[in-house]
Fold this protein.
Amino acid sequence: MTSIGSTCSSSVQFGKREARSTGASFAQYGGLRPVENMQMFPPATKLSGFVSTSVSALRFRKVRSMAAPSVSAPKREKDPKKRVVITGMGLVSVFGSDIDTYYNKLLEGESGISLIDRFEASTFSVRFAGQIRDFSTKGYIDGKNDRRLDDCWRYCLVAGKKALDDADLGAQVLQSMDKGKIGVLVGTGMGGLTAFSNGVEALIQKGYKKITPFFIPYSITNMGSALLAIDTGLMGPNYSISTACATANYCFYAAANHIRRGEADIMVAGGTEAAVMATGVGGFIACRALSQRNDEPKRASRPWDKDRDGFVMGEGAGVLIMESLEHAMKRGAVIIAEYLGGSVTCDAHHMTDPRSDGLGVSSCIAKSLEDAKVSPEEVNYINAHATSTLAGDLAEVNAIKNVFKDTSEIKMNATKSMIGHGLGAAGGLEAIATIKAITTGWLHPTINQENLEPSVTIDTVPDIKKQHQVNVAISNSFGFGGHNSVVVFAPFTP
């Protein structure tokens, strides 16, 4: 969970509809032992074949020419069957379930971290988290199922259906489409942890006959994708990936490859997690991975700050609708951004420690750029994994510096400074923040940065939002087990 320059000719930037504007070994990886030597775009435009529902708000603006890179940029994919675009987004977050509200809160630098009241946490050494409150499933889950479901699956269903609606793929539209070519790939690191904990408690206190029949189905990690498909009738590729906090990016990478191979026209992909409960918080306390700043929880998540003391738990879900460009054009979809590529690697080193040489992470970043067919010089924004742990934060920065020899034009921020670490959902929530940075031209700040580590020489957008025209962005996610994942997004250009 903690392991972990730009060129284009003047052209037109295409965005989205205006309605969206504005123990021991565990402790080492968990932040207690540092690694040595680590150092406003206008909303939518209308193209032939691309239809917006907010025509009165449509306008366009030229992209500023960027300095030429030191090497020639690779030629990007041109085949519309293999180009993967983002046509919808949905989330559940500590800031609510509306995309614009979520991003505006991030731009304002507001912390969503607070004291836990979901369970009695007064005796816990960590008593705060990015706990979601006032969550509503109205219109998305019927009452009977809503009462039975683990929050992990409730978050998944709401975020997934919101993403489908955002992509103009509501129930009526889906009825006329080939559902065998629409897949679901929403992963989770922990699965239905509340359902699992309740089942174990029933077994111990009352015996096996008192275990609910939903114990297994609502605990296993594949159920988010399964339930979403059952509700929507989507019959394409369907499974779950569980690679701890790298999960969502793994799902984006795999989903894009299903599209590129022609196995699906559309993939509903992302991550979901609901571990802010006694077992989840207690487990990470046992790992010694969490910040213990109970007296000031809003200042507890402080990536790259010298006084950081561990990550802050979060929860939620982040889902993207990924679609082949050809299919999006045929149905007149509004295109938000483009997925250019990604990569997944393994440190092959330790369950929780990052490699001291950063090889797994740096190779993952380099391979993602190769897959995306972009040069390092084209990248000018990084949404970092940056969990606020001693070892992980600097290991990631060191790996970034190994790939990007000149970081003077790169901006890098940490979404987790405000929403905490969403574990398997983190990559999904951060992908949405990355895409919003692309479409709005504004980067959210990294908050609580009062005493920056001297080795962090990249602009981390401290404390105040910053206007920045994103050319190519990468979003990093790394997880226990040495799982590394990086995905690459860019503004869509025909």
The chain has a mean pLDDT of 87. The radius of gyration is 21 Å.
